[in-house]
Design goal:
- This protein is of the alpha+beta class and 101 residues long.
- It has a domain of 70 residues.
- It has 3 helices and 4 strands; from the N terminus they run αββαββα.
- The strands form 2 sheets. The chain has a two-stranded antiparallel sheet. The chain has a two-stranded antiparallel ribbon with strand order 3-4.
- It is elongated.
Length: 101
């Protein structure tokens, strides 16, 4: 991911018109007077990871005014959304009327 910092910086500059400084292994966004939501930055970083095919190896964590990219633990998988439960047999079986002609 270290070699992708420059690409991530360019990607973020094109999407959210702010100045970005590469500081070691981190990016510092200078928003000036403009308020920038960390949710927006997190979404853009996730989009970048997906486009580069790195979404399976890295995850994005948001905390107050910091957005971190962390390597996934071995065996940890991405959540594919909400899983639905199977309907109970009572919901799927037709109702039986035993005493009807």
């Amino acid at each position: 991911m270290k070699d992708e910092l420059g690409n991530l910086s360019d990607f973020l500059k094109s999407k959210i018109r702010v100045s970005i400084v590469v500081n070691g292994e981190s990016l510092v966004l200078d928003t000036g007077e403009e308020k920038l939501l960390t949710e927006r930055v997190k979404t853009l970083v996730k989009k970048f990871l997906h486009q580069r095919g790195l979404a399976e190896a890295y995850r994005v964590i948001e905390a107050k005014e910091v957005v971190r990219v962390a390597k996934r633990k071995h065996g940890e998988k991405r959540k594919a959304g909400k899983k639905r439960r199977a309907p109970s047999p009572y919901d799927t079986l037709p109702y039986f009327f035993p005493n009807r002609p």
